[in-house]
């Protein structure tokens, strides 16, 4: 599974914009707001300077040094807002910083290098390098440095400070060098942040892909465990179908030599036999279908009743299947198909443990905080060393080729996924009983304990 991320421009802003993070959406609104406020402030400042200042176009006495700086910067603020509306975040940020640098430079120029606003230029250069990256950030920093050098050489100097002109030139050189240095530091920081975020994004993508692959393998393993159960179930189904086919052939043979009324009666009996055999095939199809393990709230008692109805058609005649289901519903949240799979595994194991005639008893009752399902048989039982290992993967006491050792592992895995518990009581020659404790929706196993 690939993370949906595209890089239109290799910059920190473009990376953050491509991640669709909420903080980036807020950053976009900040760019919008700052660009519009800057354009509005520039327009208002230009009108105020032209209307109220004696020399309002460009003079040190006017607000922001007059209308010239504000009128020169206002189109760039508006262009930054327009670029942001077209989702060009980096271009909008570049134009916004350029507009700020232009406004600060033109507003400081009439006052000469004695104006403290020149110190905003290195800060703008550092911000450009940090946010815009190497190429646009350093390009804007070079423009800022050039402006500082020009201001140190050509900006007006008050007559009283003419003798200090070399000092102003040196001051502009220091500011220009500082602007370039800060822009370079910002650009390096930008690259480091970009690489760090890109690495984190790649790790997140790898983690998502690994999780997806793990879920896919888990689904295949779940299907493999189910197919193993289907193989054992198919043997009993084939035995029952063979008996059904013998009944069908008997009716067909006798119907061929019988009267019309007898033929109709035997056709009805054939239809009944086919209807009785149909659930066997339906159960095989449902059990072998690879599902995604959907969890739902179900009545476990009703699910056990349905299992008993299906199992009654499969068990051979020498095995008696008994059910003991308590009154009322027993609701729990679990995977219904996994529950059926677990019950079939336990019933098949019980069938294989019985030699000759025997009984398999399935009980279901609700207690305080748990639903208890018991599957017991009158088979041969298990010694203590076998009981300790029955839930281990691939452990089996069956001859080679007759068992995979995964059936009870799947049952234990299902119970753990329900946050339940599984226990077994067995003695050699006295049968075996598996007990499944599944927590209900209104309690926990601690209440049962």
Characterization of the model:
- The chain has 449 residues and is α+β, with helices and mostly antiparallel strands.
- It folds into two domains: 12-210, no CATH class; 295-448, Heat Shock Protein 90 (2-Layer Sandwich), CATH 3.30.565.10.
- 63% of the residues lie in helices and 10% in strands.
- The chain contains 13 helices and seven strands.
- The chain has helices spanning 12-18, 22-52, 67-85, 89-108, 120-132, 134-154, 165-256, 260-288, 300-314, 336-353, 384-387, 407-417, 445-448; strands at residues 296-299, 319-325, 331-334, 358-367, 370-377, 421-426, 432-439.
- A five-stranded mixed sheet has the order 2-4-5-7-6.
- Helix 6 (134-154) packs antiparallel against helix 7.
- 34% of the residues are buried.
What can be said about this structure in brief?
The chain is an alpha+beta fold.
